Amino acid sequence: MATTLRSPARSADNRAPAIASRGKDSPATLSLWQTLVAAGLGNLLLYVAFPPAGLSPLAWLAPLPWLWLIAQGKTLGRRGYWAVWLASFGFWAALLYGISLAHPLLIPGWLVLTVYLGIYLPLFIGMTRMLVHRWR
């Protein structure tokens, strides 16, 4: 009678577990909701700084949530950068909405422009995080 020993890391059907424990070398990832809220708050503050609300002093406070994302020791991960892009896309779509009102044929151009401009915030956060955390 031969008994087989199963590894504790494997389940009964011999598959690796879905969530592996992190080692000491791999940094933890920042929560998706924390990233989305921080990016969204910064973009909301920046949007309110523009007309029609026109609360221009809030433009000085808008980068603070983005700087918080940069200063975090945890990584953002791919989903985190997508969340930052989504918040940035929403900001640019709301800010440039007037373009789509001029003529219906301008709507695809407005969408392409908002997709393009939405890339800048994740790019800024990613490059600045690299400068801060790798090169100090």
Topology:
Layout: H1 32-49, H2 63-71, H3 77-95, H4 97-102, H5 107-117, H6 120-134
Helix pairs in contact: 1-2, 1-3, 2-6, 3-5, 3-6
Describe this structure in words.
With 136 residues, this protein is mostly helical. It has one domain. The protein is 57% helix and 0% strand. The chain has helices at residues 32-49, 63-71, 77-95, 97-102, 107-117, 120-134. Helix 1 (32-49) packs antiparallel against helix 2. The chain is globular and about 50 Å long. 15% of the residues are buried. The model is unreliable at 16-26 (pLDDT under 50).
What can be said about this structure in brief?
Helices cover 57% and strands 0% of the residues. The chain is mainly α.
Give the biggest sheet: none
- Rg, alpha carbons: 21 Å
Q: Approximately what portion of the residues adopt beta-strand conformation?
A: under 5%
Q: In whole angstroms, how far apart are the ends? A: 61 Å
Question: Can you give the helix content as a percent range?
Answer: 55-70%
- Gross morphology is globular
Mean pLDDT: 86
Uncertain spans: 16-26
Total beta-strand segments: 0
Number of domains: 1
String of helices and strands: HHHHHH
Structural class: mainly alpha
* Count of separate DSSP helical elements: 6
